[in-house]
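Supplementary Note 3. Input sequence used for the single-chain structure prediction.
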Amino acid sequence: MPHLTSIDVAGRIEDLYGAPLADLEAHAQDQPPGMLSALLGMHDALALAERSIAFHRDQLARLIHPGRQIGPHEVSHLLDATRRLAEAVAVREAQAKSVAAVLQSLARVPAPTPTPPAPSPPAAAPPLVAPSPARSR
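The predicted structure, written as discrete structure tokens, is reproduced below.
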């Protein structure tokens, strides 16, 4: 299964539903929960995990900056940032795997093609006048 990012997922949802993500989010607000709201929720969770990864990665980079002294107090911050980064990566991987499996199982249903109107039956011929047994004068 390919590794999906939140941007990839957004594109796949848009392709599946044939509308921009913002429009789909607005539409889902007015609807009962269903597949669209589930996919949008999975997308949001994936995007949040990606933001968390970026934040904790940047925090870790600040903590281990070459010009910075690392003492006993900083070690606990390093360990905490590392743990949080690992958790965010695990969440992202789980979300990406789940949403990829769901999206892979779905396909866009083509719009129904209008059926051509059924040909109307031929007009009934006017009834033939039966010859009358009475003689004409």
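The two ends are 95 Å apart (CA to CA). The chain is about 60% helix and 0% strand.
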